[in-house]
Amino acid sequence: MAGGGSSDNDKVLAAVSALPLVGLIVYLAMKDASPFVKNYAKQGALVFLVGVVGMVVGFIPFIGWLISFAVWVVELVAIVLLLVNALQEVRDYKLPVLGDLADQVFK
Q1: Domain spans of the chain?
Q2: Which of 7, 22, 33, 99 could pair with 37 as two cysteines, CB 3.0-4.6 Å apart?
């Protein structure tokens, strides 16, 4: 297939940025990325940080395990939502609650 241009590159980079650790790396390393890619990178980075907090809380017996499992489920759903929306090229998609928080944390 000939020529897709930067739009296809942005779509792929946004989808890859939806993966938590990759999103953090892309956000920190690619200051010249398009707003589309940065949107997904910020949200992926925040999902990564939420996952780290969930793992730390998981060291608390019983209640921490339950909270950690709940955070893991939220993290998994968030990743799937980000991937699907990035591949469909939804430019301004934001995760419920986490999307606005990502904008505040990663300016």
Answers
A1: 5-92
A2: 33
* pLDDT tens-digit series, residues 40-76: 999 999 999 999 999 999 999 999 999 999 999 999 9
DSSP per residue, 30-43: -TTS-HHHHHHHHH
CB hemisphere CA count around 35 (13 angstroms): 6
Q: How far apart are CA 29 and CA 27, in angstroms?
A: 6
Q: Is 40 exposed, middle or buried (0-12, 13-18, 19+ CB in 10 A)?
A: buried
Distances (CA, A) of 21 to 43, 61, 64, 78, 104: 11, 26, 23, 14, 19
Handedness of CA 15, 27, 39, 32 (dihedral sign): negative
* Cα–Cα–Cα angle for 88, 30, 44, rounded to 5 degrees: 50
Q: What is the pTM of this model?
A: 0.84
